[in-house]
Amino acid sequence: MTRQAIVAANWKMNGNLSLVKEMVSGLKQVTLASNVNVVVCPSFPYLAAFSAESAEQSLSATICLGAQNMSEQQSGAFTGEVSSEMLTEVSAKYVILGHSERRTLYKESSTLVASKVTKALEAGLIPILCIGESEEERISDQTETVLASQIQPVIDAIGIEKFSGVVIAYEPVWAIGTGKTASPEMAQETHAFIRQYLANESQKIAQKVPLLYGGSVNRGNFEQLFAQTDIDGGLIGGASLNVDEFSVICSAA
Ligand code: PEP
């Protein structure tokens, strides 16, 4: 089965209006393989600008917009929060949820992340659910237990069938922004575990869910990673701020 491949850019709290314009112009030059979607996730203030610039430059519909987070609440007195419907109104199609920086710096629990996934699906957004273990957890052989503890609350919240509308990004915490990447073999082994975990609930759904790898992916290492059987693309941080580098990764994915 050919799964949807996805290359997603997580700009984090970086970028500006100039980068929005440069990225849209750069991506306009890229020819994507037929099963590849590109998702650019800038900070909230640039979502509408990215959407307008994409329309202005008639960017392909396979290059989409995503947000980096959203509230689990519908609307109301939640100062500083952004709702799922606000995201869809500015044409976001995807939303990154449960990024390790949200889990560690902002203490987001897997239960909260599961509520956000539920809310995102209700609004018609595609959640990119991030999971991953810390270095200590890997060393102490806890990787699979940690990943299961991050996936299971989402299965409990939405049911396995709705996972057909979810993307999972496996991002070992020790590889994010550190320059240390999981070896292709290590990444494949962990992706295979994630797919098997879903398959224990539904083989059909497990075969559909795109599993992305994230953690210091760059133009020098993406090809070997993306060539693995259970790796369907990447979630890219630092390297996605460089238009040329990100374009190379997208065009060869
Ligand atoms: C990320 O922020 O999701 C990420 C993978 O960052 P980097 O590529 O910089 O490691």
TrEMBL record:
It catalyses: D-glyceraldehyde 3-phosphate = dihydroxyacetone phosphate. Substrate binds at residues 10-12, 177, 216, 237-238. GO terms for molecular function: triose-phosphate isomerase activity. Its main location: cytoplasm. GO terms for cellular component: cytosol. PROSITE patterns: TIM_1 (PS00171), TIM_2 (PS51440). Pathway: Carbohydrate degradation; glycolysis; D-glyceraldehyde 3-phosphate from glycerone phosphate: step 1/1; Carbohydrate metabolism; erythritol degradation; Carbohydrate biosynthesis; gluconeogenesis. Keywords: Cytoplasm, Gluconeogenesis, Glycolysis, Isomerase. It holds the Pfam family TIM. GO terms for biological process: gluconeogenesis; glyceraldehyde-3-phosphate biosynthetic process; glycerol catabolic process; glycolytic process. The active site is at 99 (electrophile), 171 (proton acceptor). Its EC number is 5.3.1.1. It is found in: Cytoplasm. Homodimer. Belongs to the triosephosphate isomerase family. Involved in the gluconeogenesis. Catalyzes stereospecifically the conversion of dihydroxyacetone phosphate (DHAP) to D-glyceraldehyde-3-phosphate (G3P). PANTHER family: TRIOSEPHOSPHATE ISOMERASE (PTHR21139:SF42). This is Triosephosphate isomerase. It comes from Thalassotalea piscium. The gene is tpiA.
